[in-house]
Design a protein that fits this description.
Chain A: Residues 1-200 form the Heme-copper oxidase subunit III family profile domain. The complex is a heterodimer of chains A (200) and B (540). Chain A contains seven helices and no strands. With 200 residues, chain A is mainly alpha-helical. The radius of gyration of chain B is 23 Å and the shape is globular. The chains are: A mainly alpha (200), B mainly alpha (540). The complex binds protoporphyrin IX containing FE and copper (II) ion.
């Protein structure tokens, strides 16, 4: 309907924070399961964790942190009227997202070729806890990968809007909220990385 | 049943629209239109599921096979449960009456995110369509029960994945509404609408919205895991692969117990609105009622384990969950006592909304007390998975939330249609429903105590008489429901005109014209008194 749109920046941000909370709880369910099964299968989890390819995980961590930084800088840039810079930074963040997914694809291909995937005969022969570990990993990382994809698309759209001038110093709620979303994606990975690649 | 033609009242938000025909509804961002959209879709699904419930009762009318075989019975109670829970009672209040009256009650022109509000309805419909598709494609309707317990739901050949995905989409819609409502209540209250003057219905929606956004994601991940289990064979709950089915039950009930508060809290909010208006007295203990909504939401999040007393938990866990469950009874009882105290020495007018509200108190109390029987581990072991449980939860969600929903229909719909229903048939309908209800479900409680299990399509001959009684009760109930429907439908089409404040309420929705104009308020209202301060409403 044609009513004068009033902008409530604080309201938009509150809504986004609430939504991010729900995302956190979504992944929280997976971390809960991880905790419960870790208590049951400490040795099997450790054995499986040592099999993970640390190199892939490290690279992806660096990529995501970099892109998160770029997204944050894009928000500051737009606030200061630097629209071109903001578009460049967002573009960089989107590319990082794409590289992350490619890297993930390579990692998974590698794991598959070694026979590590749900229902594989190698895992069927291994102690049961190991299969649980990898299943948890694939579901959690898969869900996270889906979020990387969604976040990248979101950042790309926002970059186009910034380029066209729909998003500007006076109204950047969409940009700020997309950046918040991207930080969440980053944050979740910061939990996944140590739990599956490092501490075991 | 599309409310496209405002035949009687060419006024207010009914006529003031940029688009025409159906598009003026399904693309509208006006909270009142979205509320009505929700109302009709939610209520439509309710009627479908009632029909399924009646079929279940017909099958149970006599021992042996009556009208269907075991597989059909399994599918039917699953679909009945899934539709009732996920398509009617969980989205019901927030979607329909929440959308219709909450923005007006806080003095706002609309919700904080009107387009997200519309998206929420679209997601709901998409989810519903997916669930319905799952009934007729693939391996046929799921036969797992609405709880989708693994490992069975991972193995059955029926169309579980698609149905579960549909529920996931509906859950997303629920989250969107929750985010929207919390933001609206925080940001868009009119001047003078302090937290202490918030109508109790709004308080209950607020508490509900928090449960929605904190619990629904857990359901989301649980559903994702079912699909992963079926499609990828992850084996996370499959004992043969190291998984543990009990873990599934924990995850499922971490959502689904709080979900019962999504079903009941707004219903309690409705009752807290209606009782003071029809007793012509300010509500007793406003603060305690508002606070107890939050307390129920908070304490209720910690008791999920009482669904698993017989699943093989540790004794310590059983003790703790049993104790916590009893604690939730306290804030619920506070509400009941406050309603009763409000009624005490009130000048009570027994019109349809009030009759439904009073029966809410009665039926909800029976539901609550039978709930305590199941909250105590010792007695639960006797009644677990018997008809007793079926009786209990119908008393709570149907006798409680369902009757509150009917109360809300009689109380608020005239405001939005501008016309009134006839009082006498409304009371007849109520009497039939109330009587039928108790015959139908009290028999189940007794049958359960005698040991008849639930989710069985057949039973021993000694259970035959009570089952027949129960089935007859279901027909009385259905007759009452039909009368209610016809009466409301005819009244809202061509009944007497409803003034702007037919009941003498003091909340803001009664201060604006009937039906409300598109933007609700001509000027931003300034609130100067509480929601149950009846001085100045023209009613003694
Ligand atoms: C005329 C109305 C209704 C009738 C006749 C009816 C009847 C039944 C019957 C016979 C069962 C199966 C019992 C068993 O074999 O275990 C059942 C299950 C159930 N009903 Fe209803 N019911 C009605 C309304 C409702 C309402 C309003 C709700 C909720 C809002 C509801 C929610 C459920 C649920 C969740 C189940 C459990 C399904 C399962 O075990 O998976 N019912 N109902
Ligand atoms: Cu429960």
């Amino acid at each position: 309907m044609s009513r004068p749109q009033h902008r409530d920046h604080a309201g938009a941000k509150l809504g986004m924070w609430l939504f991010l909370l729900t995302e956190l709880f979504l992944f929280g369910g997976m971390f809960l399961l991880y905790g419960a099964y870790l208590v049951r299968y400490p040795r099997e989890f450790a054995a499986a964790g040592r099999e993970m390819q640390l190199w892939f995980g490290t690279v992806n961590t660096v990529i995501l942190i970099t892109s998160s930084l770029m997204a944050a800088m894009a928000v500051t840039a737009i606030q200061r009227g630097g629209r071109r810079l903001a578009v460049w930074l967002l573009g960089g963040a989107v590319i990082c997202g794409a590289v992350f997914l490619i890297n993930k694809y390579l990692e998974w291909s590698h794991e598959f070729s070694r026979g590590i995937y749900p229902g594989s005969s190698r895992l069927a022969a291994a102690p049961p806890g190991e299969s649980v570990f990898y299943s948890l990993y694939y579901v959690t990382a898969g869900l996270h990968g889906l979020h990387v994809l969604i976040g990248s698309v979101l950042l790309a759209v926002v970059a186009v809007w910034a380029w066209r001038g729909t998003i500007h110093a006076g109204d950047f709620a969409w940009l700020e909220n997309s950046a918040l979303y991207w930080h969440l994606v980053d944050l979740v990975w910061i939990f996944i990385f140590p739990l599956y690649y490092l501490i075991l | 049943m599309e409310p496209t033609e405002p035949t009687t009242t060419a006024a207010g938000f009914w006529s003031d629209t940029g688009r025409s025909g159906i598009a003026s509804w399904i693309f509208s961002t006006d909270h009142k239109r979205i509320g009505l959209l929700y109302f009709y879709s939610v209520f439509g699904f309710f009627l479908v599921a009632v029909a399924l419930g009646l079929l279940l009762r017909i099958e149970l009318m006599a021992p042996g096979r009556t009208i269907m075989g075991p597989q059909a019975y399994n599918a039917l109670f699953t679909v009945h449960g899934v539709v009732m829970v996920f398509l009617f009672i969980i989205p019901g209040f927030q979607g329909s009456f929440g959308n219709l009256v909450m923005p007006i009650q806080i003095g706002a022109r609309d919700v904080a995110f009107p387009r997200l509000n519309l998206l929420s309805w679209w997601l709901y419909m998409a989810g519903a369509a997916i669930i319905l598709t799952s009934l007729f494609t693939g391996g046929g309707p799921p036969d797992t029960g609405w709880t989708f317990y693994l490992p069975f739901s991972g193995r059955t050949g029926t169309n579980v994945s698609l149905a579960v995905f549909g529920v996931f989409v509906v859950g997303f819609s629920s989250i969107v509404t929750g985010v929207n409502f919390i933001t609206t209540i925080h940001r868009l209250r009119a001047e003078g609408m302090t937290w202490g003057r918030l109508p109790l219905f709004v308080w209950s929606l607020y508490a509900t919205a928090w449960v929605q956004i904190l619990a629904t994601p857990i359901l989301g991940i649980t559903l994702v895991l079912i699909i992963a289990e079926r499609l990828l064979g992850t084996g996370l709950f499959e004992p043969g692969q190291g998984g543990d089915p009990l873990m599934y039950q924990h995850l499922f009930w971490i959502y689904s117990h709080p979900a019962v508060y999504i079903m009941i809290l707004p219903a309690m909010g409705v009752i807290s609105e209606i009782i003071p208006v029809f007793a012509r007295k300010p509500i007793f203990g406003y603060r305690m009622i508002a606070f107890s909504s939050i307390a129920i939401a908070a304490a209720g999040s910690l008791v999920w384990g009482h669904h698993m007393f017989t699943s093989g938990m540790s004794d310590m866990a059983i003790l703790v969950f049993s104790f916590l469950t009893f604690i939730v009874a306290i804030p619920s009882a506070i509400k009941v006592f406050n309603w009763i105290s409000t009624l005490y020495r009130g000048s009570i007018s027994l019109e349809a909304p009030m009759l439904f509200s009073l029966s809410f108190i009665f039926l909800f109390s029976i539901g609550g007390l039978t709930g305590l029987v199941q909250g105590a581990a010792a007695t639960d072991i006797h009644v677990h998975d018997t008809q007793f449980v079926v009786g209990h939860f119908h008393y709570v969600i149907f006798g409680g939330s369902g009757f509150a929903f009917f109360a809300a229909m009689h109380y608020w719909l005239p405001k939005f249609y501008g016309r009134r229903y006839a009082e006498k048939p409304a009371i007849i309908a109520w009497a039939l429903m109330f009587t039928g209800f108790n015959i139908l479900y009290f028999s189940m409680i007794v049958l359960g105590l005698e040991g008849m299990p639930r989710r069985y399509y057949d039973y021993l001959p000694e259970f035959a008489p009570l089952n027949l009684v129960s089935t007859i009760g279901s027909w009385i109930l259905a007759t009452g429901l039909m009368i209610l429907l016809v009466n409301l439908f005819m009244g809202l089409r061509s009944g007497a005109r409803a003034g702007s404040n037919p009941w003498g309420g003091a909340t803001l929705e009664w201060s604006i014209p009937t039906p409300p104009p598109t933007e609700n308020f001509a000027d931003e209202p300034v609130v100067t008194h509480g929601p149950y301060d009846f001085r100045g409403t023209g009613v003694p």
